[in-house]
Amino acid sequence: MPVTEDGVMYEDGEIQRRGGRTLAWRWWGEPGGTPVLRLQGTPGSRLYRHPDPAIQRGLGVRYLMADRPGYGGSARLPGRGVADIADDLAVLLDHHQLDRVPVMGTSGGGPHALAVAARHPGRIAAVSVIVGASPLEPDEADRLVGVNAAGYAAAERGWDALHELLAQVRVRLLGDEGMAGVLSDAPPEDRAIMKDPAWQKLSRANTAEALRQGAEGWTDESMALHRPWDFDPERIRSTVTWWHGDNDMNAPLTAAKRAAARLKSVKRRPAGLAQRGPFRVADTRGRDRARVAQPLDLSES
After folding, report:
1. How high is the mean pLDDT of the chain?
2. Each residue of 8-50: pLDDT tens digit?
3. pLDDT > 80? residue 67
4. Is residue 5, in this structure, part of any structural domain at all?
């Protein structure tokens, strides 16, 4: 089994969906670890992982990840919604003979984690959402970082307008600017995370793989996330843990609270996250033990 230069085992593979559509997957971690279905952010690929491999080893978990349609090695699914990916993930669990697992989703992966728990409640033991995206109101879009505010405005005009914008952003992400340059107006805490060389290296590899097909899959996903959810969160039977910072300029806390109000069981938000942006929350709570197991309640003010 291949091993990264910092000692993380991994295994890659593909499955075929209806119509011959390819879904690329990756296991991160040693065989025998506790399986966790892990859903990366937007844009992202199956290469996403925390820059400190000791965290995962200490937990004894093994992450199963997949490229969503149009990213990395997975074929595009034009016009797809969030719920379509839930069905992909259920097939992925079948392929690996996994009956019931916890799922965790970061940023754009958050709604997909909720969707698989809603559409396949018997397959999901627990849900963790980390700085999860949710449908925005226009006034919330005004508080986003510049590139995301522009993306919201473009999505309001339709797929073509959004694709034109994201194709340009893709060039910047894959060029010298990278994520740090594109998000130069992010909160200071996030900019500090993005300066870390280990974070930068993994971020560039993840982004390059995610966007190697172009910006079409990213546009499809962004349009799906822009629309109201196409699944019923009230069908989720497992407990949902939702981590979020007060100063999130990618996914505003007000939108997260509104989404959380539709869930039956959301645990209490821990103190001390005020003024933290999405990368800071993900890094701090990214001691993945907390991401999978500990509580957050966005229903409180």
Report:
1. 89
2. 999 999 999 988 999 999 999 999 999 999 999 999 999 999 9
3. yes
4. no
Q: Give me 102's structure tokens.
A: 């916890």
The CATH number for 198's domain is 3.40.50.1820
* Cis, peptide link before residue 43, omega less than 30° from 0: yes
In a domain, 153, yes or no: yes
Contact between 147 and 260 (Cβ < 8 Å): no
| DSSP code for 272 | S
Residue 126 φ then ψ, to 5°: -165, 155
Our count of domains for the chain comes to: 1
Q: Record the pTM.
A: 0.90
Residue 257 lies in a domain: yes
300 occurs within a structural domain = no
Provide the domain limits for residue 136.
Answer: 10-293
The answer on pLDDT for 285 being more than 50 is no
Q: Sign of dihedral through CA atoms 29, 96, 285, 181?
A: positive
Q: And the tokens for 41?
A: 């952010």
pLDDT for the residue numbered 247: 80
Distances (CA, A) of 5 to 10, 56, 197, 202: 11, 15, 15, 12
- Residues linked to residue 255 through DSSP beta bridges, in sequence order: none
**pLDDT of amino acid 164:** 98
Put the strands of the sheet holding 34-39 in their side by side order.
Answer: 10-16, 22-28, 61-66, 34-39, 101-106, 124-130, 240-243
Q: Which amino acid is at 148?
A: N
Task: Please report, for residues 34, 175, 215, 229, the alpha-carbon distance to residue 69 in angstroms, rounded to integers and kept in the order given.
Answer: 26, 23, 12, 18
Burial of 97 by CB count in 10 Å (0-12 exposed, 13-18 middle, 19+ buried)?
A: exposed
Cα 237-39-106 angle, rounded to 5 deg: 90
**pLDDT of residue 151 exceeding 50:** yes
CB atoms under 10 Å from CB of 157, counted, come to: 11
